[in-house]
Amino acid sequence: MKKKKVFYVSVLSVLLCFPLLGFKYSNNGVTSSTSSSDIEVSSTSTTSLESSTVVSTETTFSSSDVNDKSTINQTNDEETENQIKQEAPIAEKFYVSIIDKNYQLLEEPNGEVLQDNGENYQRTFAAQEIDDNGTKLYLLFSPEKQVGYIQPNSTEQVIGQEGKLFSETDVYGSINSADVTLFNSNFQANGTTSALKDHTYKIDGFYNHFDGKQYYLLKDVTDKFVGIVESIAVEKTKDQAGQKHSVNDYYSVVKNNQKVWKNFDFEELGTSELFVDQTFNVKEWYYHFNGTKYFVLYDNSANFKGIVEEGTIQRASSPGGIWKTASQYVTITKNNWTIWKDFNFKNGSSTNNLYQRTYRVTGWYRHINGTKYLSVYDNKGIWQGYLNEDGAQVVDTPGGQWHSTNQYVTVTKNNWTIWKDFNFKNGSSTKNMYQKTYRVTGWYRHYNGSKYLSVYDNKGNWQGYLNEGGAQVVNNPGGQWHSTNQYVTITKNNWTIWKDFNFKNGSSTKNMYQKTYRVTGWYRHYNGSKYLSVYNNNGNWQGYLNEGGAAKAAGAQGTGFSINKSVLVIKSGYSIWNNFGWKEKARTNSLINKTYQIKWYYKHMNGSTYYSLYDSSNGNWFGYVNSGAVRERRGTAHYLGTSRQRVMNELYAHQNDRFYLSTPYRGLSSSNPEPFLSPYGAPNAYGPGMNCTGFVAYVMRRSGGNLNRISGITQGWGSYANAYNWRDALMRNTEYYTFNSIDALLKSGKAQKGDIIYFDPVWTDINYDCHIGIFWGNRSNENRIWHQVLAGNMQSHIFSGTRFSKIYLFPQD
């Protein structure tokens, strides 16, 4: 080894030889200005002089002494001081970075090679140039110590303590700290990395600073300088995506026109339209070198679904996803599902009590499990929970879901409102619908909790929406059963009484006509008619009868039928009833052969007919009697054994010839009636001639009448040729009406062509006489009679040859 040139220096001289090896640090970082006072020298430094300049290896540089203003102990030895000035010229300090990967670092000039395993490659050191027998070496120092000797060509001299910028290729770094100092290109502090946190940049190069720290020079995607930061604030990667940020969050896709990527080579999987409103698990995210933040989406089964930009999604607080505001109504369609109180799916309740009811939805979530959950409220604003959308149907109005049906209802409220819409502003009263039956084609369970029926009449006209509380559902179109206990009398003899409301099984009312039945209840049918449920006196059901075929009765006696006939009491032992509570008024024993007028009759439910009797003489009501106790006094033709039609046939046959007309009058003069029954057309042995009674008697006999019914009842003079005898016989045995004047007769409407008219005389007149004839008006009010008068047989206006006190009208039937 070459012999070193040795210089003997004091500690002070050594310090003076390296005036720039120390470092000052400002508050913002390292500065390049240093002074010799910043170098700490060991008290054991050598003071011997050799052929080479020697600096003790005990000399150290410490960053902890950067701001230390300690005073270096100086000798007062003026001689030593002078010697330093004369024998130890000050060496210039500079900085170098080791650039040779195969560098050798010597412990001493021409000494042993230090085995540092290349760890100082690209590091920056303070250096002093020395001459070792003509060979130039650099003595390197770190802030803490002397490092060793190195060939100058293994280094590159640099301007500042930061050292050489070593270029990087395809290397990127993500900022992982927000409070590290950011330096500008001159290594002057320029704030912190707060604004750069998580961003990814290209590492354009790095500095291995004299202070032992590594710094990266960062550029953005446009190759614009961003800043220089310490390496501890950067995570390096070869991937432009930058640092992987592991998380376990949930996000919902909120944009439908964004790209979805397969990888960071940006191979497209499609667009976010497929995922919009869906929720995903985000397990990592990246802040790409291109300046965009990307999130990696996974489904509920941890399957990778794609990579999207930050703006495509929105973070959710739970796996339920993000809240989507809505304002709609739904009807619950599942009665065995669960409505949840949270998205842990541990706290829930059955939808059984919510089934088919309508609720308000204020918003919804699309859960990571792929299901949409509705946030459900009742009409009082009470939250019910989260319901899977498949358990409900969205409806257009608060009316709820339409439920189709086909049933009938009877309206049971007469003061409710039936609505035209669910705004409840357009409606009408149910008054006119009360107890009527309607068809329901469907219904709604409204948000207000009520069920509304969609009601139609039997013509298919929609009536409106009726709260179900205003009607009763019935099993058939017959409607609601209305219980009652009343009696009716059948008034139609050709109607049908039905066994069901299909109207296919029925029977005629012919055999029920005018009979009385018990009604236990009724229906107001969908067709608009009221049907009575009819039972006979044995309790046997007869069927359903339209109420128009019966008359309501006050009791089991039935309804009264008006009549105006006479009856003759013919049987004893019968009661005369004061009422149909069977209070007896009298018995028929003392009434035999007495005549009474019937104004009403009743067909009692017990099967008997009862007559309402009136006294013929004064018109006073007498009581009710079973029809079996009397014989009805029918018309003249019936009494004599013929008919009105046969009488009319006889008269019509001769109304225009001289068979009767013009027959001369022959006054009654003997008990033998035959001489007075001899018309022109068929004279007997006595020759033509008739009195008024003879004309009537002959017509009735030629019509088939038995005149002995007159003579056999009365034994009066003149027999059936005497009108008094006809009066007495017919009053006793037939129906008749009395009038005080001809005008009253004509106005009564009772008279029919062919009836017998009898005029009772004024008995106080000297020449009183009666008169009899046949009514010949074509109308009941036409003033015409066919009779035998003194002038002969004729058809004329109605008159009597003498004054009369009363007119009797004896109908033929």
Automatic annotation (TrEMBL):
Positions of the UniProt region annotated as Disordered: 59-86
Superkingdom of the organism of origin: Bacteria
Signal peptide location: 1-24
Keywords for this protein: Signal
Entry keyword annotation includes Signal: yes
UniProt keyword Glycoprotein present: no
Protein name in the entry: NlpC/P60 domain-containing protein
Organism: Enterococcus dongliensis
